[in-house]
Amino acid sequence: MALERAGQPIERAYFPRSGVGSTVVQGGNGRQIEVGLFGCDGMSGIASILQSRYAINDTFIQIEGDGLAIDADRLADLLGQSASLRRHLSRYVLAMMAQMAQTALSNAHSKLEERLAGWLLMCHDRSGNDNLALTHEFVALMLGVRRAGVTVGTHVLEGEGLIEAKRGRITILDRAGLEKRARDTYGAAEAEYARLIGFRGARQRAALAKTDP
After folding, report:
1. Residue 88 exposed, middle or buried by CB count within 10 Å (0-12, 13-18, 19+)
2. What's a single GO BP term from this record (predicted)?
3. How many CB atoms lie within 10 A of CB 3?
């Protein structure tokens, strides 16, 4: 499900209660890579927080779930009326900038297995589910690598007993081990989120969302 298209007006901001959304950048050659990921810890429509009506990149739902939505014009009105809302959402923008910076660093300097481990942890945080509905083709698109590379990386993590991969699904078996395998690709952005938002992280928020009637 597409939430935003690059260069197109932002009609609504979405606040997932479950599921995972991705923001991707597309090059002139048609290749894509994920630059941002959010779930119950965040929202789409970041450009509207910065008083822009147009999306910079494509944003879509990668793991289905439910959530809430607000008209972009209504959100703009509320931001104009509430200093506390502006402050809180501005902090969220900073948290996403930290995530994007960490993603860029990981893409440039980390091994594929480390990047895959970190990315799966981020999805796990936001889905609140050990079973992630993901195909190798989709993961390759998000990481900006060939499918064969994802297959090799998945086999490495499986061989270490960290995950189990079946057709269209990846199951997290050993989260602590996966965090260790991810090395510097995971943790820094999560710590910055906790500092800025004052919450321990997306995984705790996902757990609360599952119990919220």
Report:
1. middle
2. regulation of DNA-templated transcription
3. 22
Query: Structural domain of residue 147, as residue ranges?
Result: 2-211
CATH number of the domain to which 9 belongs: 1.10.10.10
Which residue is it, tokens 């699904």?
Answer: 169
State how far the Cα of 139 lies from the Cα of 200, in Å rounded to an integer.
26
Burial 107-132 (b: 16+ CB within 10 A, else e): beebebbbbbbbbbbbbbbbbbbeeb
pLDDT band at 29 (very low <50, low <70, confident <90, very high): confident
Q: How many residues does the chain have?
A: 213
Structural domains of the chain, count: 1
| Mean pLDDT score across all residues of the chain | 91
How much of the chain exceeds pLDDT 90, in percent? 80
**Residue 168's Cα: distance from chain center in Å?**
19
Residue 82, token pair as written in the block: 């509430």
Q: Which helix (H) or strand (E) holds 58?
A: strand 58-63
The residue type found at 207 is: A
